[in-house]
Amino acid sequence: MKARLSFALAGVLSAAAAGIAFADDDARTAPAVKLLTTIPVPINPKAAPPSTGMKSFDISWVDAGTELYYLADRSNQTVDVVDARHNRFVKQIMGGFRGFTGSNDTSGPNGVQVAGNFLFVTDAPSRVVTIDLRTDNVVGEVHTCKPPSAPPACVISPNRADELAYDPEDSLILAVNNADDPPYATFIRVDRNTGALSWVASISFADATNGAEQPVWHAGTGRFYISIPQIGPNPQDGAVKRINPTTHAVEATYPVRFCQPAGLTVGPNGDLLVGCSVAFDEAGNAWARDPNGAAPAAKPESVIIDARNGSIDRRVQGVGGNDEVWYNPGDNRYYLAARNQPGGSSPGNANFSPVLGIIDARTMTLDQVVPTFNQAPGSAHSVAVDPRNNHALVPLPVNNIVHDCHTGCIAVYGSPRRGERDDD
């Protein structure tokens, strides 16, 4: 444990050395976050079938060292790259990705994460690749194996490999097949020098009855964690599982009720923020709009737990219906892509008003919700934050409501500073 705590501290110190400003713990009120600008996403002329703009996309990631933002863009069959410092589109990386098939379960790319010079990307069918960012070439590729199969007799699911996490201590990826029943995850070894990938082991989540969502690596505990929306027959019963990277086994299951856990991110003080994908009502049932106002009121919330034992530190009221969530050390706040926040109307779903939720990690209270935008088949369910300027990047699908979003765009949210544009 001492070595792992030293590793975590080294990460903080290296971030500080890179010029990232960390928030202090005084009681000053954080400035309001607004829409600052939008960055148009170009159509990839090489997409097949031809792209008509970014309508389907998935997870995003900011590399703090380079301030580059990466987005899994299914519509364009690329990973889109944006300069988060200057709000400029940089390029689209081709990796032989499946694209959008009409079903998220068989589409890709899906999950993205950067480690040094390598970009890890998940795809369909059950595919994980390494892209060398110095050349933008695929230098590693492996397929996840459906348990109990293993190479060379690997049973490859036609469904996508979805979200992933990377353990730099053991040089391991944990990639999740969420659309299979039961869902499963695969441990994949990364060659630190070449980026080559090799299958290690697979683990099934037999008690998961509604897929499996975001995995994360926690340096402080030396463990993977993964959100499980539902355990057993009751929609109210979800969980976060703790996974040992050495034994490739689930060590503990932490119950998280009235949440349907989806997004997951490592916060300060050994905490994990669980983004709840479903908003429940005051009676404990999944919320639904009642035009007559007779049904119980909505109770959207997100949950902060202790990674060591699963105890719940706080149920934060006011924001729910999340997918990707992100902790930003630059301002010590959590950012939540709440595409299914109960509220007014939204194109494609009149029961929800998507927002970007912002939670103060120190006080564990909701700071703010900022309107975003859904347009089927896409939704504002992805977020990543640049810790140097505290800008949150939220991809939005093709629409003619948000400025510069006719082919899809990346919306940039932050606290306006002198000389910055404010589009709100």
Biggest β-sheet: strands ordered side by side in the sheet: 1-28-27-26
Helix content: under 10%
Number of β-strand runs: 28
Number of helices: 1
Query: What percentage of the residues does DSSP assign to strands (E)?
Result: 35-45%
Separation of the first and last Cα atoms: 46 Å
Q: What sequence of helices (H) and strands (E) makes up the elements? A: HEEEEEEEEEEEEEEEEEEEEEEEEEEEE
List the helices and strands and how they pair.
Blueprint: H1 2-17, E1 34-40, E2 57-63, E3 68-73, E4 78-83, E5 88-94, E6 112-115, E7 118-123, E8 127-132, E9 137-143, E10 164-167, E11 172-177, E12 184-190, E13 197-204, E14 215-218, E15 223-228, E16 237-244, E17 249-257, E18 261-266, E19 271-276, E20 301-306, E21 312-317, E22 322-328, E23 333-338, E24 355-360, E25 365-371, E26 384-386, E27 391-396, E28 409-414
Antiparallel strand pairs: 1-28, 2-3, 3-4, 4-5, 6-7, 7-8, 8-9, 10-11, 11-12, 12-13, 14-15, 15-16, 16-17, 18-19, 19-20, 20-21, 22-23, 23-24, 24-25, 26-27, 27-28
Can you describe this structure?
The chain is mainly β. The chain is 4% helix and 41% strand. The strands form seven sheets. It has a four-stranded antiparallel β-sheet, with no helix packed on it. Strand 22 and strand 23 form a beta hairpin.
Concise overview:
Helix content is about 5%, strand content about 40%. The protein has one helix and 28 strands.
